[in-house]
From TrEMBL:
The complex is composed of two ATP-binding proteins (LolD) and two transmembrane proteins (LolC and LolE). Its main location: membrane. Gene3D superfamilies: P-loop containing nucleotide triphosphate hydrolases. One of its GO terms (molecular function) is ATP binding. Part of the ABC transporter complex LolCDE involved in the translocation of mature outer membrane-directed lipoproteins, from the inner membrane to the periplasmic chaperone, LolA. Responsible for the formation of the LolA-lipoprotein complex in an ATP-dependent manner. Its EC number is 7.6.2.-. The lineage of its organism: Bacteria, Pseudomonadati, Pseudomonadota, Gammaproteobacteria, Oceanospirillales. Belongs to the ABC transporter superfamily. Lipoprotein translocase (TC 3.A.1.125) family. GO terms for cellular component: plasma membrane. Keywords: ATP-binding, Cell inner membrane, Cell membrane, Lipoprotein, Membrane, Nucleotide-binding, Translocase, Transport. This is Lipoprotein-releasing system ATP-binding protein LolD. PANTHER family: ABC TRANSPORTER ATP-BINDING PROTEIN MG467-RELATED (PTHR42798:SF2), LIPOPROTEIN-RELEASING SYSTEM ATP-BINDING PROTEIN LOLD (PTHR42798). It is an enzyme of class 7 (translocase).
Amino acid sequence: MNKCVINKEVLRCIDVHKTYQEGPEDVTVLQGVELSVRSGERVAIVGSSGSGKTTLLNMLGGLDLPSKGEIQVGGETLAQLGERKRDQMRNRKLGFVYQFHHLLSEFTASENVAMPLLIRGVSRTEAQQSAETMLTRVGLGQRAQHKPAELSGGERQRVAIARALVTDPACVLMDEPTGNLDQTTAQHIQQMIVELAQGAGTGFVIVTHDLALARQQDRILQLNQGRLEALAL
Ligand SMILES: Nc1ncnc2c1ncn2[C@@H]1O[C@H](COP(=O)(O)OP(=O)(O)OP(=O)(O)O)[C@@H](O)[C@H]1O
């Protein structure tokens, strides 16, 4: 839990390029992205629609590999790990909050949040307890036994946030984390982000169109023409 004692680099991109070669024409989205995120640091990434934010986030999380360049998580290069090791790395070091939640519909909120702990081999009782503590933290203690279909969009979003945080990851990758939330709930989530960054040294990469959210982070980077540049707001 002493991640903040040593201010270490949790995530790094070195000259990252990405070209999609799936259609009739190649689409180059990233052209030399450089990024370093240290423990306890909160970085917002903004950019116009189609600028490549989701593409970058997927690569930071090891869901896709760069066409050129390198991504390091906790000092390890993702492309050099086999698929199984990459999965382990995702589970141990990263937390994800996707735009579309990806909750498992047949499981309760509590079971969804417990899932990454069960994958790690934590006992069912312990995983369930941690899940319920985390759900209470995001204001959903009363909804722990509900299935996703019985929750509102904002509540599902908060379940996804609880699931990303329950493993105490070194770095959390968030795609529009407050997209479906009212201002008060969004502010509550922002407070949690700050507490985790300062208390546990968790690093955050937050992709958003919400400039109010972006302004509350330590740094704002804009994805423009395939590169990240500092934005002063
Ligand atoms: N699998 C794919 N094959 C081909 N092109 C793709 C693929 N995925 C994304 N793209 C293209 O890459 C570009 C960047 O897409 P991406 O989803 O990363 O943008 P974004 O900045 O997240 O956009 P938004 O803010 O609208 O979510 C777009 O032009 C998109 O059409």
